[in-house]
Amino acid sequence: MELNEITSKAKETMDKSIEFTESQLSKIRTGRASASILDDVSVDAYGTATPISQTATVSVPDARSLIVQPWDKSLLPAIEKAIQVADLGFNPQNDGQVIRINVPPLTQERRKEFVKMAKTNVEDGKVAIRNVRRDANDSLKKAEKNKELSEDFRKQGEEEIQKLTDDYIKNLDSIFDAKEKELMDE
């Protein structure tokens, strides 16, 4: 395996770790309404657990409310129940046509809980990036052992991988700082 191949594969995997961490953070709600808050809610539709996004349209008419409009009105009670069971702190209101959700402002205590959740997600992302670094370094050592790389190229590759790791971890720290600010400043 070539040095460029190993580093580009590591970079690609680290990018995926960052994307995954960002998607996890987007599900942590701030005081503002966001359709992604309901991404993990599954509705019992026709006997199958189905993501809410596949049963209804979720819209955000303003900063403090969501409207869930099912494609099949018979699913209204199931969607309402799924939102309640998800324990997101919402009280959905079913008017027979749509479900309205008022997003209450967060208490200071709840904000701190969400910051802890975000910190945990970011730490998981850092662990994933460090695992990618370990795997890439293992690949470099294996390539050197198989005489595909010289010792100098292996060392150069390890330095590049470490620089990549440092950059991605710094990126995760700035993503966390932004999320923390978003959670605490409202």
Keywords:
57% helix, single chain, alpha+beta, 4-stranded antiparallel beta sheet, 186 residues, two-stranded antiparallel sheet
**What's the average pLDDT?**
87
Q: What is the SS-derived class?
A: alpha+beta
N-to-C span: 50 Å
Report the radius of gyration as a whole number of Å: 22 Å
Backbone shape: elongated
Approximate strand percentage: 5-15%
Describe the largest sheet.
4 strands, antiparallel
Order of helices and strands: HEEEEHEEHH
Low-confidence stretches: none
Percent in helix: 55-70%
Oligomer kind: single chain
Give a short overview.
This protein is α+β, with helices and mostly antiparallel strands. It has helices at residues 3-26, 76-85, 108-145, 151-184; strands spanning 42-45, 48-51, 56-62, 65-70, 93-94, 99-102.
Question: What does this protein structure show overall?
Answer:
There is one protein chain. With 186 residues, this protein is an alpha+beta fold. Helices cover 57% and strands 15% of the residues. The chain is built from four helices and six strands. It has a four-stranded antiparallel sheet, covered by helices on one side. Strands 1-2 form a two-stranded antiparallel sheet. A hairpin with a 2-residue loop joins strand 3 and strand 4. Helix 1 (3-26) runs antiparallel to helix 3 (108-145) and helix 1 packs parallel to helix 4. The protein is elongated and about 70 Å long. The termini are far apart.
